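Lab notebook, design round three. We kept the backbone fixed and only want residue identities now. Task for the bench partner: fill in a sequence for the structure below.
Input structure tokens:
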């Protein structure tokens, strides 16, 4: 199978997964709903070039020595009660989208690097071993860090215009 075909299949898989979440939750226009996440992810993917979209796909699916965000999500969701799963799924989707689309950018443009991914991964594994409450707290803490990193980037861009 050619690399272009693999990339195409990955993007189609991502879109189908996103559509599934879109139809399985209430619609809305924020990052707290599946529809809002789908809209934002689509917008972010359009801002990436072809190579960056491929790196985003690798972030989601994994590569040698890295499980990928989908596997990490499944593992983390397993610590939560079934009745919490939908809300936690949205949190993990949102966090993965924010981290992955930034990490996938060219090295000279990105604000999230592989070292950060490794650190956050270590912290999430430790939190998971301590249970659902600690895992949830860690997910929120990491999301706040990511938001600060991304906001800092936007603030810097606005002041240099």
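Proposed sequence:
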């Amino acid at each position: 199978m050619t690399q272009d075909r693999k990339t195409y299949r990955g993007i189609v898989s991502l879109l189908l997964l996103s559509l599934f979440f879109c139809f399985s939750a209430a619609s809305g226009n924020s990052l707290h709903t599946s529809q809002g996440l789908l809209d934002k992810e689509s917008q972010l993917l359009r801002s990436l070039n072809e190579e960056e979209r491929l790196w985003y796909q690798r972030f989601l699916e994994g590569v040698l020595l890295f499980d990928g965000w989908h596997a990490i999500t499944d593992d983390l969701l397993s610590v939560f009660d079934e009745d919490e799963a939908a809300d936690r799924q949205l949190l993990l989707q949102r966090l993965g989208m924010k981290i992955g689309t930034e990490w996938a950018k060219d090295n000279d443009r990105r604000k999230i690097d592989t070292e950060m991914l490794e650190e956050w991964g270590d912290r999430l594994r430790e939190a998971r071993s301590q249970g659902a409450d600690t895992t949830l707290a860690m997910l929120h803490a990491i999301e706040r860090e990511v938001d600060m990193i991304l906001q800092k980037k936007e603030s810097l861009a606005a002041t240099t215009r």
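Keep this in mind before ordering anything: The helical segments are 3-24, 34-47, 50-61, 69-77, 85-103, 114-129, 132-159.
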